Structures are given as structure tokens and as C-alpha cells.
Amino acid sequence: MDNKELIRLAFEAMEYAYAPYSAHKVGAALLSKSGKVYTGCNIENAAYGPSNCAERTAFFKAVSEGEREFERIAVVGGKDGRVTSYFVPCGVCRQVMSEFCDDDFSVIVAKSEDDYLSKTLKELLPDRFSPKSLSSE
Ligand code: THU
């Protein structure tokens, strides 16, 4: 699975975004180490707080189906689904990534299939709190 295809799947997932409050549509496509792709979109709520980001939707779908190891995620988003800038994951989503991913996990933020940046989880969340932080050693 190349980056271009993963980004294409993130754009496809963005179509399903439920964002009547912010009007910002977001899509994500998460590649597991087993080679499967799990897509996600943001899902908002009238009470605002229960809203879920696209990245976490993808992670929760994957983990709930038995996946625990991940290689890459592609993320796209923008107002009314118009992707004009790189849509970087929020802090909560970075923390969810931190639970399951290594430092070198790649986060691809894209404007199009050919215009994207690739960042590592370590770059996005240095000195992160992770399962290792709770080890007794
Ligand atoms: N959103 C995401 O889906 N992913 C992020 O990483 C940042 C924000 C969503 C949440 C909300 O539905 C909308 O974008 C505006 O914040």
C-alpha cells in the first residue's frame, strides 16, 4: 500500500464525515502492520463533547477488530470537505496513537494524493506519555 492509495482512501472516508456543527470534514485511513486499512471520519454530536475525530474513529475500529500494531495513517480535512491545507491531528488523537504506535509511526497529512507531508509520531508528540511510562522499572 503506497502513500497515494492510503491518501485516496482517506479522501473517500471524508465523504462520510458527520460534521453539521463545525462543517469541517475529516477523513483518515490507518494501515495496520498486518496490511489491512481501517478508515474513519469525524462524527460530531449536538452536545459537542461526544464528538469523535476521524483518526480516533479509525483507531477504534481497528483495535475493536483485534489490531494492535500500526504502520501509517493518512489524514485529510477541510471546511465543507475542501482540502486546502494540511489537517494535522489534534492532541487527543496523538495520545491515542501513542498508546499503540512506535516512535517511527508515520502520520501523513495531505492536501492531495501528490501533495503531502510525512511526520513521525515522535515529531508530533515528543516526550510522550505511553504504556512504557507506567512500567515499574
Ligand atoms: N477533527 C478531526 O477529525 N481530527 C483532528 O485531528 C482534529 C479535528 C474534527 C473534530 C471536529 O469534528 C472538526 O474536526 C473540527 O474540529
Structure description:
By secondary structure, the chain is of the alpha+beta class. Helices cover 26% and strands 27% of the residues. It has four helices and five strands; from the N terminus they run αββαβαββα. Strands 2-1-3-4-5 form a five-stranded mixed β-sheet. Strand 4 and strand 5 form a beta hairpin. The longest helix is centred in the N-terminal third of the chain and has 12 residues, at 3-14. The protein is globular. 35% of the residues are buried. It binds tetrahydrodeoxyuridine. Tetrahydrodeoxyuridine (THU) is lined by residues 19, 22, 24, 26, 42, 44, 51, 53-55, 89-90, 93.
Descriptors:
binds tetrahydrodeoxyuridine; alpha+beta; 26% helix; 137 residues; 4 helices; 5 strands; five-stranded mixed β-sheet
Task: Break the fold down into its secondary structure elements and pairings.
Layout: H1 3-14, E1 24-32, E2 37-41, H2 54-63, E3 70-79, H3 91-100, E4 106-112, E5 115-120, H4 121-124
Bound molecules: tetrahydrodeoxyuridine.
Residues 19, 22, 24, 26, 42, 44, 51, 53-55, 89-90, 93 line the site of tetrahydrodeoxyuridine (THU).
